[in-house]
Each structure stands twice: as structure tokens, then as C-alpha cells.
Specification:
Largest sheet: none
Shape: globular
Strand content: under 5%
Structural class: mainly alpha
Radius of gyration: 17 Å
Number of helices: 8
Order of helices and strands: HHHHHHHH
Helix content: over 70%
Oligomer: single chain
């Protein structure tokens, strides 16, 4: 992994860890629960990406820094729980930042491992949404990716921008930040402007016995 990708990956790790830790503090978890939720939120997407592309051991396990940074972010939220509340919707903001960074870096890592363009975009999306899904499941919430909010689509758009930039010959130093920015923009618009995906209309109610 290049220094740029590594730095962005660590930034995404911190953002996702903060989203998981903030949610854990609000759920009144103990210190162990806060640290666990911070860590699994931060590293799950990257681990899943690496397993799918055959990068063994996953980067978050081979390198001590992602888990250490996630634990530090979790500890900071536990000791200073009032700090994230200074932001409006802190969980969603941290999550949006992590989503954008991981979607973009995930796509670039997949490209670096020789995957084709469509699958690289898909793996970028998976990298972005993986941590949020695990976080929501562990806190007994319906994962936001399964709701009408623009979440996975934002991650896919950011990952696709990286892939298209690669196809156009752009260096990762340009395409990866661009992809992260596109994903972050779409997610923030979904949060603050109410952008949502269409949902299925209700069909005819089932009859008794059907």
C-alpha cells in the first residue's frame, strides 16, 4: 500500500472508530464494549475487502496501527463523551467520513491487486459499508444500508469515481481523494437534504390464510 493510501486508510479507521465509539457511549456500554465497537467498526470493512481479494493476513491484522488507533479513538470517546455531542449528528458525520475514505481506498487497493474495474468498484463499496453494518448489528439496529437512505449508493459512486479515474489514467493521488469527496458529498446531502432512494410501493395485503 502506498503512503497516500495508508494515510487515508488510517484516517478512515479513526473516523469509523469514532462513529462506533460514540454510538456505544450513547448506548451506555462499559469501557470494553466501547472499545470493541470502535475497533470492529473501524476494521471490519477492510478485513472483508482483504479476505475477498486474497490479501492474507488482512492489513488491519498485519499492522498494529489500525487497531491501536481505533482503540485510542474509543478510549477518547469514553473519557470525554461530551466532545462528539458538540457536532450535529456526530455518529452520522463520522460514519460519512469513514464511508467516503474506505470506499475510495478500497477500490484502489482492489485495483492494485489486479481486479477488473467493475469488481474493484464493488469491493470499494463493500469496504465502505462493512464496518457500519457490523456496528449496527452489534447495537441491535437495522443497518442503515438496508434503509432508504443513500448509503451504499454513495459508497459505490465514490468507488466508481476511483475506478473511472484509473481507467482514464489519473494517478491515485487525484482519483482517490476525488472518490472520497464524491461519496462524502452524496452522504451528507442524504443526511441534511433528505435525499433518499425510492422504496417499493405496498402491494395488495395478504388475505387471511395466504
Amino acid at each position: 500500500m502506498s503512503p497516500l493510501l495508508h494515510a487515508l486508510d488510517l484516517a478512515g479507521t479513526i473516523a469509523f472508530a469514532l462513529s462506533g465509539a460514540t454510538l456505544a457511549v450513547r448506548a451506555r456500554m462499559d469501557l470494553f464494549g466501547v472499545l470493541v465497537l470502535a475497533i470492529v467498526t473501524a476494521v471490519s470493512g477492510g478485513i472483508l475487502r482483504d479476505l475477498l481479494i486474497g490479501a492474507i493476513p488482512p492489513a488491519s491484522i498485519a499492522d498494529w496501527r489500525p487497531i491501536a488507533l481505533a482503540a485510542a479513538a474509543g478510549l477518547a470517546c469514553f473519557l470525554r463523551p461530551a466532545l462528539p455531542d458538540r457536532l450535529r449528528h456526530p455518529v452520522q458525520l463520522f460514519d460519512a467520513a469513514g464511508l467516503g475514505v474506505f470506499a475510495a481506498t478500497g477500490a484502489q487497493v482492489a485495483l492494485n491487486h489486479g481486479l477488473n474495474l467493475p469488481m474493484s468498484a464493488v469491493l470499494g463499496m463493500v469496504t465502505g459499508i462493512g464496518g457500519g453494518i457490523v456496528r449496527d448489528v452489534l447495537t441491535a439496529r437495522v443497518p442503515v444500508v438496508f434503509q432508504a437512505e443513500i448509503y451504499a449508493v454513495a459508497a459505490l459512486a465514490g468507488a466508481a469515481a476511483v475506478v473511472l479515474g484509473h481507467a482514464a489514467g489519473l494517478p491515485p493521488a487525484l482519483s482517490v481523494p476525488l472518490g472520497a469527496t464524491i461519496c462524502l458529498f452524496l452522504r451528507l446531502m442524504a443526511l441534511y437534504r433528505g435525499w433518499r432512494l425510492p422504496i417499493a410501493a405496498r402491494g395488495t395485503p395478504d388475505r387471511p390464510g395466504e
